[in-house]
Amino acid sequence: MMEKVIVHEVGLRDGLQNQSKHVHTDSKLEILSALIASGIKSIEVTSFVSPKAVPQMSDAKELYQSLPKKPGLHFEALVPNLKGYERATESGAKTIALVLASTDTMNRKNINMSLDEALKVNLDVIRRANNEGIRARCYISTALHCPFENYVNPIEVLKIADKLDTAGADELVIADTTGGGNPQQVDELFKALVISHEPKKLAGHFHDTRGMGLLLAWVALQHGVRKFDSSIGGLGGCPFAPGATGNLATEDLVFMLNQSGYETGIDIVKVRNAVKVAQGYVDQKLGGNIVGWLDTQKSL
Ligand code: COA
Ligand code: ZN
After folding, report:
1. Mean of per-residue pLDDT scores for the chain
2. Distance, CA 84 to ligand 1 centroid (Å)?
3. Alpha helices in the chain (DSSP H)
């Protein structure tokens, strides 16, 4: 039997948050429909953050309440603090994604908290989520490279992972927010992570800024990780991490996994259609490396 890998689509949040051109709720729902039509079932749709910090996510409640109710679909929303948690759960979120950067400066730039303050907020929200039956997916962002402090000590990342896990995190997502990581680092970090955390609890979120995204996912896959974030057409970047471009393109990740004998349940041609839909709403040129080749395949 083929092994399953979950491709978790983050374009609507991680991608759109960085777009200057406003994307209307209806357009987000149209992109979402195209994603679902391709077989994608796990989707981070928005974030309940300050609308002043990220205006593109100011429709989070409206969007969340308009999500399709089809069984088998899994939606989640990013929250930076307790207020975000309350807004998300009141809007119907059953899974929240928390974000904690591995360095002090990145936390200050992203959520206006020190690393210690942010850690405390994360642990409080995780415990509350556990008590209320809400799944807590925990990002450790800038886990391989920080745009402000540059070097990230892997020991600190491991310590943060332990604290989040002990508090009750359902999932630990290792995020290369800037795309500044390299395969050797990922190999060493995941080798250490799987000693104390089950691989099924781990996920990878690799930006493709320097063309390493797919390779980093492949290395983590070799350590038993079976869930990866990606973004349609490579959409996005992080408004608070200078120089970061989009996440690993969903179509590239799906192609690699399907070709390598893993089961994603996702149809690459239909992902291509979803990229076209998303392209209609953003100025950024979309498309992973595989798109050029796909477009030459007349039979597909
Ligand atoms: N959702 C909506 N509004 C929020 C909020 C949330 N989760 N958290 C705080 N606010 C509001 C407060 O109510 C307050 O509103 P007011 O000015 O009308 O009184 C205002 O934001 C400031 O609140 P404060 O607690 O002082 O927050 P801050 O200014 O220190 O900002 C964050 C902290 C976390 C809210 C803000 O930095 C943020 O939203 N960052 C998100 C970053 C992001 O999305 N990064 C990309 C994803 S990793
Ligand atoms: Zn990201």
Report:
1. 96
2. 8
3. 25-37, 60-65, 82-90, 104-111, 115-131, 154-167, 183-196, 213-222, 250-259, 268-279, 289-296
- Report the candidate in 43, 136, 60 with the shortest Cα–Cα distance to residue 94: 136
Tokens of 239: 């408004």
Q: Closest ligand 1 atom, CA of 111?
A: 37
Q: Which fold, 6-294? A: TIM Barrel (3.20.20)
Nearest CA to 14 among 48, 50, 44? 44
- Ligand 1 atom with least separation from CA of 13: 47
Q: 206 phi and psi, to 5 degrees?
A: -115, 115
Average pLDDT over residues 116-124: 98
Q: Answer whether residue 236 shows pLDDT above 90.
A: no
pLDDT of residue 18: 87
Ligand 2 being an ion, which residues bring their Cβ within 5 A of it?
A: 14
- Does the active-site annotation cover 238? yes
Domain ranges of the chain: 6-294
Which residues is 79 bridged to in the sheet?
98
What is the token pair recorded at 64?
């969340």
- What pTM, to 2 d.p., does this model score? 0.96
Tell me the β-bridge partners of 230.
9
- pLDDT (tens digit, 9 = 90+) per residue, 14-31? 999 989 899 999 999 999
Place of tokens 């104390």: 196
Question: Nearest 5 degrees, angle CA 42-CA 210-CA 152?
Answer: 85
Q: In this structure, are residues 289 and 249 in contact, taking their beta carbons and an 8 Å threshold? A: yes
Nearest CA to 221 out of 283, 157, 174 is that of: 174
Alpha helices in 197-249 (DSSP H): 213-222
Phi, psi at 83, each rounded to 5°: -60, -40
Which residues, 6+ apart, have CB-to-CB distance to 160 below 8 Å?
100, 102, 119, 140
Task: Return the closest-CA partner of residue 101 out of 137, 143, 138, 136.
Answer: 143
